[in-house]
Write a structure and sequence with these properties.
By secondary structure, the protein is of the alpha/beta class. About 55% of the residues lie in helices and about 10% in strands. It has two domains: about 130 residues, Response regulator (Rossmann fold, 3-Layer(aba) Sandwich); about 90 residues, Arc Repressor Mutant, subunit A. It is globular. It comes from Cnuella takakiae. This is AraC-type DNA-binding protein.
């Protein structure tokens, strides 16, 4: 039986593209927006979710955010498809635990192969876990050791601009679903959210003690966009970083 895919996409043209390149290898289920996608997830669990970002009624950002709230233990990989190059959107999606972003226009054969590889890898990991043969590939990390190692990784990633769940999971020697589950259970949020908060807290300290400019503080803490840094800082602290410099 072919793996099932939930595709959340409002464009008829893009739906046709997905049918053309994926229908032979996957059972496709379509939702025209995020609300329909959430309703469909109440009745079945797909092997993969592909969602557009820009949609009417309920866009991809809201869909993924609600999905994480309603189904916190859901380990189905999510791929977001977008024609936007907005770094803020990319960082927001990754912070919610989206496994990857595919930028339009998509190439049929490479895209299809990537989706097949992703589903196959997930199925292999789940099968190995069932057979209790996960030990040679993914060691079972004691909870206390995992949290200690994860906290170290968070600090290591503060100055890094490009952060990926796959790289974090490899550093901790666990699968991506295990990483998401453990972090959610212990901290109540995603790994990307914790790293983003750590970046902002470090930037806050730098602005207070090192008297760096807003641009330099953003750069030192791995923000590729000063405008996004200011927006994220204001959301966390209720004020812009510039007001801190004025007081100092």
């Amino acid at each position: 039986m072919n793996p099932s895919v939930l595709i959340v996409e409002d464009s008829l043209l893009d739906r046709h593209f997905f049918k053309t390149c994926l229908a032979q290898d996957f059972n496709l289920n379509f939702a025209s927006n995020g609300l329909e996608g959430l309703q469909m997830l109440r009745t079945f669990k797909p092997d993969l979710i592909i969602t557009d970002v820009m949609m009417p009624e309920c866009d991809g950002l809201h869909f993924v955010n609600q999905l994480r709230k309603e189904y916190p233990q859901n380990d189905v990989p999510i791929i977001a498809v977008t024609g936007s190059t907005d770094q803020a959107i990319t960082e927001a999606l990754l912070a919610m635990g989206v496994l990857g972003l595919a930028h339009k226009p998509l190439m049929p054969k490479p895209f299809c192969q990537q989706m097949k590889n992703l589903v196959n890898l997930r199925q292999q990991i789940r099968q190995m876990a069932k057979e209790e043969k996960v030990q040679p590939v993914l060691r079972r990390v004691p909870e206390d050791d995992f949290i200690k190692d994860f906290d170290t990784v968070v600090q290591d990633y503060i100055p890094v601009q490009e952060v990926s769940l796959g790289e974090i999971a490899r550093k901790l020697n666990v699968s991506i679903p295990t990483l998401l589950r453990k972090v959610k259970q212990h901290y109540g949020c995603s790994p990307m959210k914790l790293i983003s908060d750590a970046k902002l807290e470090q930037a806050h300290r730098l602005l207070q003690t090192e008297q760096l400019s807003v641009k330099d503080a953003a750069f030192e803490t791995g923000f590729v966009s000063t405008s996004y840094f200011i927006k994220a800082y204001k959301k966390k602290y209720g004020k812009t970083p510039g007001t801190l410099l004025i007081r100092n």
